[in-house]
Structure formats: C-alpha cells, structure tokens
Input
Amino acid sequence: MNVRAYLVKCDITFSDSQLDDIELVADDVIEDLPFTLQTAKKTYDQLSIPQRAIFLTLLSSGARINEVLNIRLQDIFWDETPCRVTLPICKGGKSRDVFISNEAKEYLQTVWLPRREAYIETKDKRTVGLRNRRSQLGTKTTNPFPYNIRLFPLDRNTVQEALRRGVIAAGLESKTSNGIMKLHIHSTGNFLG
Output
C-alpha cells in the first residue's frame, strides 16, 4: 500500500499539490548492502566468540536478530542434516523452522557451547546491579525467555553494536546520504555465501 492509498483509507485528504510537497526519505533503504562472502569473513574476524556464533547463525539461517536471540537450547536438532532450528517466536507470533550451515553447527558445538556456561557466570556477576535496578524500577526485559535457557544470552543492542563495530574495524563502513550504515544487522538476512 502506498502513502496515498493509506491516507485515503484513513479518511485523510490532501490536494495533489500538497501531496507533491511531501518528501519521502525511504530511498536510503534501497542502499542497504547484503553481506558477501568477502565482507562476512572480514567482519567475522573482528568479532568475539559469542558474537561469531550469533553472526554465523544469522548468516546461515537468514533469520531476524530477535528470532535468533530467542532460540532456546531445546530448539536445535543437532542430529538432523542439515541442522534444523525451530525459531520459537517469529514475526507474526508463530514459530518456524530454519536450517543452519554445517560451519555454523560445528562452531556452535565445538567453540560456543563449551564456553557458554562460563559466559553466563561472568554475565551474572556483571549484571547483578542492573537486574536489581530493573526490579526496583519494575522494568522488564523485552525477551520472553530467561537468558540462561537461550542459546545466546545476549540482548539485541549488544549484538547490533558488536556487529557495527566489527564492520567498522573491518574497514567496511559505508553510509547512506542520511548517515545510516549500509552494511548492518539486517544485511545478514540477504547473505548468499
């Protein structure tokens, strides 16, 4: 539905000359870049172990960041080929299955999972004050599952910022005319490596 059709649907009317004066800035969205094999490798090299695990999962599954962050350990079917992952909460509120590459599966099993518990223990020590402050304020997390049952006990902002820094450190920073990075977290869904 275009802007004019939406306004008509909402019983909002403008003259043609008024509509012509409205400047649409959505053109920058078209400037987004997908990750290529080369840009993915350069970015990967700049990330930490948990960030690499998430990055590989994002690239190989094509899933959205919130979908990947909601994956629970029970949602991964390691013995299937290719490895199937049930995304418990997707856009529209329904679950769906995706598959991850052998490379992502191997990295998760041999590198990330053996370090996950130590990462959670460290995170617990660092975030006690934050959790106490949130409970005092009555603030709730936006993630429906506790981080200790999720495959990746990280939040969206942490992952987005890590990927942004990885892209910059890899020398891949390119921005739209509005200053928005062309290569970002949403670019992982278009990876065709």
